[in-house]
Amino acid sequence: MPELPEVEVVRVGLATHVVGRTIEDLQVRGARVARRHLAGPDDLVARVRHTRVEEARRRGKYLWLVLATPGGDRSALLLHLGMSGQLLVKPPEAPDERHLHARFGFADDGPELRFVDQRTFGGMALAELDIDDIPDTIGHIAPDPFDPAYDQRAVIARLKARHSAIKRGLLDQTVVSGIGNIYADEALWRAGVHGERPSDTLSRPALGRLLDHAREVMGEALAKGGTSFDALYVNVNGASGYFDRSLAAYGQVGRPCGRCGTLIVREHFMNRSSYFCPQCQPRPRTRAEVLI
DNA sequence: CTTTTCTCCTGTATGC
DNA sequence: TGCATACAGGAGAAAA
């Protein structure tokens, strides 16, 4: 499940294998992969063909290729991997993958770029670059903790102003981007904070420590090539990440907490799962308990 | 306005 | 064996 570290691994792969090349052709299968491109897949193909890839960039979990026409007009091909999206660099003669949705061919007749996605939560769309060189359609996505534009004081202020569980805040990409369910649970475990704790009840220093943990755990995952739990996530070259053995909380139900030995538990939260140590991450008292 | 819930999708694992 | 169900979850629309 690609979060910031996995997406960054893919971005580096794109920078290595795709930047500097000219797209000669693009094939899009089905309407779903380009559903966010409101003008439709044919328009997307027409605008992408014969452009040169100038940069591969990322904010949070969004990736984009900066494309330039021969006339010098720049645009962004925005990509999101969703849950199971993969970008593969493959020889043109390689057989089609089962869930192949798009195929980029290049003028140099070198390897293709393929977008493969089993669950089709991912997709791509063209966007205009705004004054800060960010695609205009992701203006609502906050900078991630590795972005020079990241302002942790501003994030803390947003969390202090919210009347909602801290985990919701960590997962809200308009507050801070790049954090998904895995790294949210890991950061909360490291900080010793229960995800149901209302964010406005945490002190500013505690929020700062939690965000520091989030950046650190993602930085460690990035250094190890991204996390993977099944065969779905594959980086741009087709190699799986291997950080999963280092996780302390996520997916560790029934295993002893690395700090205190209490068994990690799983609970349902926001239509997904939360994993935490009931000893190190005490549940906040409910209003009813306070009244008792 | 803020916050929460719902929906999209398919392969794998599990239980009866 | 076969069928039903649970599960994985990012993000935006819709609802509250």
Would you write up a description of this structure?
It is a single chain. The protein is 25% helix and 22% strand. It has 292 residues and is α+β, with helices and mostly antiparallel strands. It has an eight-stranded antiparallel β-sheet. It has a two-stranded antiparallel sheet with strand order 9-10. A hairpin with a 2-residue loop joins strand 9 and strand 10 (272-276). Helix 3 packs across helix 6 (204-223) and helix 5 (181-191) crosses helix 6 (204-223). The model has no long low-confidence stretch (mean pLDDT 91). It binds a DNA duplex (16 and 16 nucleotides) through residues 1-3, 32, 36, 61, 80-84, 99, 117-122, 162-164, 168, 171, 173, 180-181, 229-230, 232, 270-273.
Structural class: alpha+beta
Strand order of the largest sheet: 5-7-6-1-2-3-4-8
When the domains are counted, the total is: 2
| Rg for CA atoms | 21 Å
Total helical elements: 7
How much β-strand is present in the residues?
15-25%
Summarize the helix and strand pattern as letters.
HEHEEEEEEEHHHHEEH
- CATH third-level topology of the largest domain: Helicase, Ruva Protein, domain 3
Total number of strands = 10
CATH class division of the largest domain: Mainly Alpha
**CATH architecture group name of the largest domain:** Orthogonal Bundle
